[in-house]
Specification:
Layout: H1 3-42, H2 45-56, E1 63-67, H3 76-96, E2 100-105, H4 111-121, E3 128-132, H5 135-145, E4 151-155, H6 160-170, E5 174-178, H7 180-184, H8 195-206, H9 229-240, E6 256-258, E7 278-283
Length: 284
Amino acid sequence: MHDNEFTTVSLKSKKKKNKLNIRSQRELIAEKLFLQYPKKVANSNIFKDVFEQIKLNKFDFLKVRCLALGSFFEEIQPLYQLCFLFELVLLITEENKTSITISLYDPVFTNDDIDFIKNELNDKSKNIKCVFETEEDWEKSIIESREDISTLYYIPHGDLHLLEYLFPIIKPKYYLGNYILDQLLRVNDFDSSMKYLVNIKRSCYKTSKLNKNESIDDSDDFKPVLKNKKSRQNKMKVAKEPHKTVETIELYFKDITAVTDSHKNIEQGPWLSAFSSLALHKIE
């Protein structure tokens, strides 16, 4: 066999092996998502709490928009979060005898994630339609879904900057994500880059849902020790500079309430921190 023929055969074998690896990974993801994880998730207190409150409040969701989930092919927590969502929607469709569309959008989705959503996930239940949204789809649907009372927004681990961007745009009426009051405690009252969240925080002061003396300092910034007199004087000058008040913005709602309370106690499980502080919010 000539060298070039050997190389060609080797490349073919390598490609075949890669395809097998991808296929086995898909099978593993499907096994975890549909067989291994559902019972663990459904037996958790937080899952039971969310589902019970949906039933008690008679929320009639027809669509769930899942944002910023992360790649469930590359990380375990997004896979648990996806399992939570799918099992929850499955129970809702059975309880209400209705159909629900789940749309998923995240710029970090890999080709494997996208293909899995379009095929395996979409074919699992006749009452659940799963749709992968491109960036163009997402932008077009922003106005259509804005303030829609039949849409639940699922953002299991949205950071502050994402919420600052999303809330004034999508104007959710129902939000399943990190407990909003805990999130707001991390917002600096004078942070002009967080205008919308600062204004939400102010509204919570007025309703006494938050206390002005409460705060969470999760900054990792290094604070140097000032040894000389000049440094101390500079620090005093900086400290005397008044904070600039963040401009007042009209909010699209008057009140935001967590209808679940399981977020008050962090539940340990194989999902690690996938559901930490997860709460179902009603915004009106």
